[in-house]
Amino acid sequence: MQVILKTAFSISTVAVLTAMALPAGAQEAAFTVSAGEVEDRKSVFATVESVDVVSARARIGGTVTELLVDEGSPVQAGQMIARVVDEKLALQTKSVDARIESLTSQRDLAETTLARSEKLFSTGAIPKSRLDEARSALEVADRSLAAAEAERQVLDQTRVEGDVLSPAAGRILTVQVRKGSVVLPGEPIATLAAEAYILRLQLPERHAMFISQGDEVQVAERGLGALTPASGANLRSGMIRQVYPEIRGGRVSADVEVAGLGDFFVGERIRVWIGTGKRPAIVVPETYLYARYGLTFAKLSDGREVVVQPGLPQDGGVEVLSGLEAGDVLSHP
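Now predict its structure.
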């Protein structure tokens, strides 16, 4: 008799503890199955592209004496990536410096002559024409000296322009020269991809009607291979920023804007999932489904259990492919 009472007490205790463990109202909660729409997503590959590909060019002709970058090097806007030296600039600078010294001496002599002429003119020893000639000689000397100094500044600026600077921040794609190469003005030294990267999609023509600017896409991380959004992978969201209006070879192109692509290689392929239209489907919260004997069941409100075929996770639950129909009322198992 004591054993029976202990057993009954144990069963009652377990029942009470079980009821306390369940969420409030879990047994009374019911879910009415209804037909809705889900968006089909297609897995495609996108290529990492740079929004802008620019060239760093030599501004003067000469010999490349320094090459400070290589393929793949990150650069900042205005960073020096190479130096071009024209040996004739040094000789021209010496020539201009010598001419500046000569013109400076001529100017000093013209100043002395003008001062002497003004003194003699004040005493009436020389006519006014001699004084005007002295003034004109000083003005000519001043302007000749200014022209020589401007020419020297041009040479200095030309020497500065031998530094090849990066036109934008990004990464070097190709380097067209090597140290010791002879280049001409305007010749490209290196090609770089600007820091802003996008994903370039190439979709079959039949999907052109389903994509538009502003649509959201899901982007896989590097190396996820064939993982899907349903696998719980760490996916990133992107947005279609441009759809090109031309179809080439039966494919439509679109650009996707995604944050954090700076560590990818230009030309690297990434798996992307895009929406390709909506279809009718039944979506049930996952808590109403349970597994037993390798099958998935759902419990109806009248107590019957039905075998269902689950599909991919969707917003609000799991898609049910078969076993349920609109109007069924489910209860928690």
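The mean pLDDT is 82.
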